[in-house]
Sequence to fold (109 residues):
Amino acid sequence: MKRVNEVFALGIAAALSVAGCKTPHHAVVVTPTGDVVVPDHPPANHTETSGKPLGPEYSWVSGYYTYRNARWIWVDGHWDAPPRLGAVWVHGHWDGTTGGWVWTPGHWE
Fold:
């Protein structure tokens, strides 16, 4: 399977060079663990107004920046009901590493 992926990647690179396309200066890397590593520092989060929850059990899931098509895109926050009684929402966050910025998704605990 690794060989197939290498051949596929070489084919894409060859097609792009023939077409005159240039690859972005800073490439996003996907590690073997599935982590997405972005070279650029994420922008500061937006200030959001959450409004009223839909019910007393709802938790605010704050918005965050994601990285798509070589640019940062804001994903709005929303109210969400926990999957079980007593569950607490842990917000997602970007961590700086030596290779770039890695996203840790939010989740219920």
Q: What stands out?
A: The helical segments are 2-19. The chain has one helix and ten strands. Strands lie at 29-30, 36-38, 59-61, 64-68, 71-75, 78-80, 89-90, 93-97, 100-104, 107-108. The longest strand covers residues 64-68.
